[in-house]
Amino acid sequence: MKRTLGLLVGSILLAILSGCASVGVNYNYTNVPKLKINEFNIEDVNTVFGKPFKTAQNITKDGTYDIFRFEYAFADVGTARGRVLLLEFLNGKLNAYSSNSSFDEDRTLFNGENINQIKIGVTAHEDAVSILGKPQGKANCPSTIDDYKKRCEDATTVWSWMSQRKIATMAMKNVGGSNVFLSFDSNGKVSNIEFSK
Asked: What's the pLDDT band for 45 if we cut at 50, 70, 90?
C-alpha cells in the first residue's frame, strides 16, 4: 500500500476506533485542483488551505524542503471517509503534492481500465491526462515525499492517480484503493508505470 493511501486509511481507522465522529482538521480541499508546481508559494499555505495537521522540514544538498500535511476523517454509523493532502516546498516553491479523498464531493478517481494505453517512451504528460484524467499528485524530482522519493531516482517528474473507497464501518469492508504512478524522463515521456489495485 502506498504511503499517502496508508495515511488516509490510518486516519479513517483512527476515527472509527477512537469512537469520535471526526479526526484531523477539515481543510479547504476546494483549492487542491488549482495547485501548480513551482507556482504556489509556501507563505500562501495557511491562507489557501488553513492550518496544517503536521509540518516537517528537511535540509538537503538540493535545498530546504518544507512538508505540510493536512488530513481529515469522518465516521458515522454506516461508513467512514477521509482525505489527505501533502504539500512539499523546495526553497519556498511547491515541488510536489499528493491528494487523496473518499468523500463524495472531492473523491479521487481514475479509470484503471485505460492503463494499458500508457506506453513507455511514447506517452507524454498531456497524453496521460487524456487517458487517465487529471492527476491527484505531481512531483518535480528530487522529492522527499515517500510516494515520490524512490521513483524520482530515475525520473524528472512523477505523477500519481489514486482511487479511494469508503469504508463500511460495521464490516470493515472495502479498505484500500487503486494507485497509478507514472515516471517521466527528461523528454517528458513515460519511463516507468506502476499500477496497483
From this structure: very high
Higher local confidence (pLDDT), 18 or 97: 97
- Under 8 Å between Cβ of 85 and 49: yes
Q: What pLDDT, on a 0 to 100 scale, did the predictor assign at position 55?
A: 97
Q: Please report which confidence band the pLDDT of residue 46 belongs to, taking 50, 70 and 90 as the band edges.
A: very high
Closest of 147, 56, 158, 166 to residue 109, by C-alpha = 166
* C-alpha–C-alpha distance, residues 31 and 46, integer Å: 12
Which regions of 134-176 does DSSP assign to beta strands (E)? Answer: 137-140, 157-164, 167-168
Query: What letters, b where the CB count within 10 A reaches 16 and e where it falls short, cover 50-65?
Result: eebbeeeeeeeeeeeb
Cβ–Cβ under 8 Å, residues 100 and 83? yes
Q: How confident is the model at residue 86 (pLDDT cuts 50, 70, 90)?
A: very high
- What string of DSSP letters covers 41-67? BGGGHHHHH-S-SEEEEEEETTEEEEE
- The answer to whether the peptide bond before residue 52 is cis (omega within 30 degrees of 0) is no
